[in-house]
Amino acid sequence: MIRAKKSLGQNFLIDKNIIEKIVNIVNIQGKIILEVGPGTGNLTSSILDKNPKKVYVVEKDNKLANQLEDKFNNLITIFNDDILRFKETSLTKEKLIVFGNLPYNISTEILTKWIIGLNDNYWFDNLILMFQKEVANRIIAKFNTSDYGRLSILSNWKLKVEKICDIKPESFYPKPKIDSSLLFFTPKNKFHKINSKNLELITRIFFNHRRKMLKKPYNQIFNGNLNILNKLKIDLNLRPQNLDYEVYYQLTKEYENLIS
């Protein structure tokens, strides 16, 4: 078996039951598939068994890309590239279904890149992605919980997120030291039309001191503006984790109105 590279965060999925669960989450027959980090191609084989219209894979590791070429020949189209620099929208005008056993060390960067790059015309129908369990918990966290924060707010801005299952280390080779979680993302029909950089600014300032009350970050951004405070019904004695996603999207919109 090929040696995994720690530098690329590689842990190859080998559990056939988990692989079967992943490829059955949605019907992919006749669909165009993008798989990120296919590794040794175990999931890729099961994807092909479902008769998709086309399968693209992005694999950064040169040796693995060559191995995939030998294994699948012309059944898939391989891009030996870095997903963080890859332009998914260049593949096709049709919407993709994306599978990814994402490298732990860049999983949040990948998700953030995709979310920030979205507009009204989504380039995918679904994302079916695996994360370190701790990261997945932050993505799906609700307000008033300890895991809730900037990643939760960004992830739920344009996407609906559902946890499918947790996955034990024994399902991978080599075995990671932590559990993983499989998440299912679908586009929201409506979302707040705000600038991602402004959302990032608002959440960064508020969550810089997540255990402190809201008064200081609110005054830093809005200079004590009582109209916004009353409009959004915000209690400045609360803490950042006590405000729902929607409030942060509305705060970002109010900020953009002030600076426009």
Question: What topology does this entry show?
Answer:
Elements: E1 12-13, H1 16-23, E2 32-36, H2 42-49, E3 54-58, H3 62-72, E4 77-79, E5 96-101, H4 107-116, E6 124-132, H5 133-140, H6 150-158, E7 159-167, E8 172-173, E9 180-187, H7 196-207, H8 215-222, H9 226-232, H10 245-259
Parallel strand pairs: 2-3, 2-5, 3-4, 5-6
Antiparallel strand pairs: 1-8, 6-9, 7-9
Describe the protein's architecture and organization.
With 260 residues, the chain is an alpha/beta fold. 37% of the residues lie in helices and 19% in strands. The chain has 2 domains: 6-187, Vaccinia Virus protein VP39 (Rossmann fold, 3-Layer(aba) Sandwich), CATH 3.40.50.150; 196-259, Helicase, Ruva Protein, domain 3, CATH 1.10.8. It has a 7-stranded mixed β-sheet. Strand 5 (96-101), helix 4 (107-116) and strand 6 form a beta-alpha-beta unit. It starts with 11 loop residues before the first strand and ends with a helix.
Q: Key terms for this structure?
A:
Helicase, Ruva Protein, domain 3; 260 residues; alpha/beta; elongated; 7-stranded mixed beta sheet; Rossmann fold; 19% strand; two-stranded antiparallel ribbon
Please outline what is shown here:
This protein has 260 residues and is an alpha/beta fold. It has helices spanning 16-23, 42-49, 62-72, 107-116, 133-140, 150-158, 196-207, 215-222, 226-232, 245-259; strands at 12-13, 32-36, 54-58, 77-79, 96-101, 124-132, 159-167, 172-173, 180-187.
Query: What is the approximate shape?
Result: elongated
Number of domains: 2
Total E-strand runs: 9
Strand content: 15-25%
- The rounded distance between the terminal residues' Cα atoms is 57 Å
Oligomer: single chain
Tell me roughly what share of residues is in helical segments. 25-40%
Estimate the mean pLDDT confidence: 94
Radius of gyration: 20 Å
Identify the CATH homologous superfamily of the largest domain.
Answer: Vaccinia Virus protein VP39
Uncertain parts:
4-9
CATH topology of the largest domain: Rossmann fold
The major β-sheet equals: 7 strands, mixed
Structural class: alpha/beta
By DSSP (H or I, 4+ residues per run), the number of helices equals 10
